[in-house]
């Protein structure tokens, strides 16, 4: 009988053989790809590809005050730093152009913090043109917290967030996140100027949410959640809200 394939002289057996070889090659390629993906995922999960970003860093001393300096932050453009220090007696907010050796005391005794390092107390606005810091009042049994903000180069600070702290701007500078010192430390998302706040998360009463920071792509907010100084871990939540996801399960004290 004449061959049914359009190619002259090709038998059904030869066609079946070619199909089987093609199928075998496809299966082998699929298995190899799946194996490569699986191996790559296991290596990634085991931090095989992780590199220490500070491995080749060269530390440079920025301050040499007597007393304490802490809670430092660097402006978005990397040119200025702000920190807390008791160099002049009381704890104050200092700002400096990095490398200049000159320091400006922005608060001059008017800064009233509680126990330090429990929350971030100072930083820069999203555009780096202003410095924010927390102001505390204790009229009753609880501590209330507000956020003041003033020009980076010095000037009169003004109230920015009443009853809220740790403002942090998204990478594009269009959105602001902060929390309030209410039960469960509710986390809010607002416009860059703190208007139109919307609550996206709150923990259980007695649990705290500190040290808010955005992911580089602006999709997530990361924060330390738990009991300060004794049992906290890293969590994250989508900036649009939803359930929070626990990132670490170490139960230590987590800050910054």
What fraction, in percent, of the residue positions are helical?
10-25%
Number of helices, where a helix is a run of at least 4 consecutive DSSP H or I residues: 1
Taken as a percent bin, the fraction of beta residues is 25-35%
Side-by-side strand order of the widest sheet: 1-2-3-4
Q: What is the overall shape?
A: elongated
Q: Based on helices, strands and strand pairing, what is the structural class? A: mainly beta
Which ranges are low-confidence, i.e. pLDDT below 50, for 5 or more consecutive residues?
none
The total strand number stands at 16
Radius of gyration: 28 Å
Largest sheet: 4 strands, antiparallel
Mean pLDDT: 86
Helix-strand topology string: HEEEEEEEEEEEEEEEE
Distance between the termini: 82 Å
Walkthrough of the structure:
This protein is mainly beta. The protein contains one helix and 16 strands. It has one helix at 12-45; strands spanning 69-74, 80-85, 92-97, 104-105, 122-124, 130-137, 144-151, 158-161, 165-169, 175-179, 187-191, 198-201, 208-214, 220-227, 231-238, 245-246. A four-stranded antiparallel β-sheet has the order 1-2-3-4, with no helix packed on it. The radius of gyration is 28 Å and the shape is elongated. It starts with 11 loop residues before the first helix and ends in a 10-residue tail after the last strand.
